[in-house]
Amino acid sequence: MISLETQKQMIFDFSSTAVESKQNQFEISIYPEIILKINFRRYPNKPKIELPKKITKNIPDIEQFIPELRNWNKLAPPQMSDIIRSIMQTLESITGKLVHISNSLFEELMVIARENHPREIFCVLRLKNGFLQEYILSPQTVSSEKSAVFFPHRIGRDRSIIASFHNHPSGVFKPSVQDLKSFRLNPVNIIVGAPYNSNCMGVYDSLGNELKFKIW
């Protein structure tokens, strides 16, 4: 098991902004306006994670995006530096500062788009450990060469789903008027155009503004 002292040292090594404000309590500046607080008083039990109210107002439960934190094992605690990195990337992706996409998911989506060409396909994406990592095909989606009609209520409630993905067989990866209407359902929306690679891909927020992204 990782000792508390080792956990502390890994936090200091991970972030130059980390300070031990009180015994076994840390404050880490994720951004100038966001301070992450971690309380290790009951370690090896799960530490208490605290984010600013302006963040928890929109993201009430950060654990739903980070399985290792949600399913914390006190007999074999995960490295807190990995948890902190996942929290940072989760916040970056949801707020649109930088959308993190796993390379494996990207490759899977490109294969699906190529296999269904020239039809449009639509799916939603799950954020997990700081990355968009999993896709869910919308049940009974009606697709054609010009559009795809989906029914989000058939997927069920899942707050870890924060993004949509669809392809444009035309090769144009700018959002259409209809796309902009559907974008309002998610903070992150991805469009890829033929021939389906990262050079033909755009990532947009709920209003259609382009977002920076990283595939890795």
Jot down its keywords:
216 residues; alpha+beta; Cytidine Deaminase, domain 2; four-stranded antiparallel sheet; 6 helices; 13 strands; 26% helix; protease
Number of domains: 2
The name of the CATH superfamily of the largest domain reads: Cytidine Deaminase, domain 2
Question: In percent terms, what proportion of residues is strand?
Answer: 25-35%
Computed Rg: 19 Å
Keywords: Hydrolase, Metal-binding, Metalloprotease, Protease, Zinc
Protein name: JAB domain-containing protein
Organism: Candidatus Lokiarchaeum ossiferum
Domain JAB: 103-198
Can you walk me through this structure?
- With 216 residues, the chain is an alpha+beta fold.
- It has two domains: 4-95; 99-215, Cytidine Deaminase, domain 2.
- It is built from six helices and 13 strands.
- It has helices spanning 4-14, 53-56, 67-70, 80-95, 103-116, 177-183, and strands at 19-22, 25-31, 34-39, 48-50, 99-101, 122-128, 131-137, 142-143, 148-149, 161-168, 188-193, 201-204, 213-215.
- The chain has a five-stranded mixed beta sheet with strand order 7-6-10-11-12. A four-stranded antiparallel beta sheet has the order 1-2-3-4, with no helix packed on it. It has a two-stranded parallel ribbon with strand order 5-13.
- It comes from Candidatus Lokiarchaeum ossiferum.
- Residues 103-198 form the JAB domain.
- This is JAB domain-containing protein.
- Keywords: Hydrolase, Metal-binding, Metalloprotease, Protease, Zinc.
